[in-house]
Amino acid sequence: MPKIAVVIPAYDEEKTIGNVLKPVSAISMIDDIIVVSDGSHDRTANIARSYKARVIEFDKNHGKTYAVLSGVQSTDADIILMLDADLIGLTEEHVINLLQPVLDERADMTIGIFNSGRGATDFAQKIAPFLSGQRAICKSVLEKLEEYKVTSYGIEMALTLMAEKEKIRTQLVYLPNLTHLMKEEKRGVLLGFLSRIKMYWDILFIFGLIKLKVIFDSK
Predict the structure, then answer these.
(1) Using CA of residue 157, residue 161, residue 166, residue 168, what is the dihedral sign?
(2) Which CATH code fits 4-218?
(3) Taking Cα atoms as reference points, which of 71, 187, 56 lies closest to residue 133?
(4) Kind plus residue range of the DSSP H or E element containing 22
(5) By the 8 A CB rule, do 148 and 158 touch?
(6) Three-state secondary-structure class, residue 111
């Protein structure tokens, strides 16, 4: 049986992280639960420890990509399950459905897509599934990211484009009744909007870098 680790990057997610860890910690096939508290100022780390998660804490915020890769580098698991810390409605069934195609060797990576959760988040993932942070991935695939430059929100885009370029088997998994807090809800309208703009800028930046690499590698 392959070893499975869950990596959850978190920045001030005390309101929701318990709801993510509760179903994850109830699944016996998961060997390691790693919460990366990325400069949090609230009770995120303490709540994670109460669910027996292994916690990596940073004094300052380094961004999602750094947090995820730090978690990945801290485990020897064969399969990594990436989950966001702000999910609402996560169930054991969602987790198992994300893992199963990789466990069965039908895919090297799954991408979770919200379905019937909330209109705004459902629509965003339908038009841009590559933005989803819910993924089960063979660790060997994640290790290939060392060849790519990713910025703070670039990991999902980088994984998607890398999978296309290198013919990595990918499967979409629909996750009914699952959603997450929007940035505007967590940080207020202004800060949430600015955070969203930064996220889209980082995604466009990494998209450009990787497309250039694909073009030059093909010549």
Answers:
(1) positive
(2) 3.90.550.10
(3) 71
(4) helix 17-25
(5) yes
(6) strand
Q: Give which of 132, 72, 67, 142 is closest to 102, Cα–Cα.
A: 142
Distance CA 139, CA 168 (A): 12
Residue 129 has pLDDT above 70, yes or no: no
Each residue's pLDDT tens digit, 188-214: 556 656 665 665 666 666 566 555 555
**Which tokens sit at 66?**
């750094």
Residue pair 25/52 in contact by the 8 Å Cβ criterion = yes
Tell me the CA end-to-end span of the chain in Å, nearest whole number. 41
3 state SS of 93: helix
Cβ count within 10 A of residue 107: 21
Query: Backbone phi, then psi, for 116, in 5-degree steps?
Result: 60, 30
Domain locations in the chain as residue ranges: 4-218
Using an 8 Å Cβ cutoff, are 106 and 47 in contact? Answer: no
The predicted model scores a pTM of: 0.82
Q: How far is CA 104 from the centre of its chain?
A: 21
The per-residue pLDDT for 154 is 75
Residues 6+ apart with CB under 8 A from 174: 112, 113, 115
Q: Which residues neighbour 63 within 8 Å (Cβ) at sequence distance 6 or greater?
A: 38, 151, 152, 153
Burial class (CB in 10 A: 0-12, 13-18, 19+), 43: middle
Q: Quote the CA–CA distance of 130 and 113 in Å, as a whole number.
A: 9
The strand pair at 87-88 and 79-82 is best described as unpaired
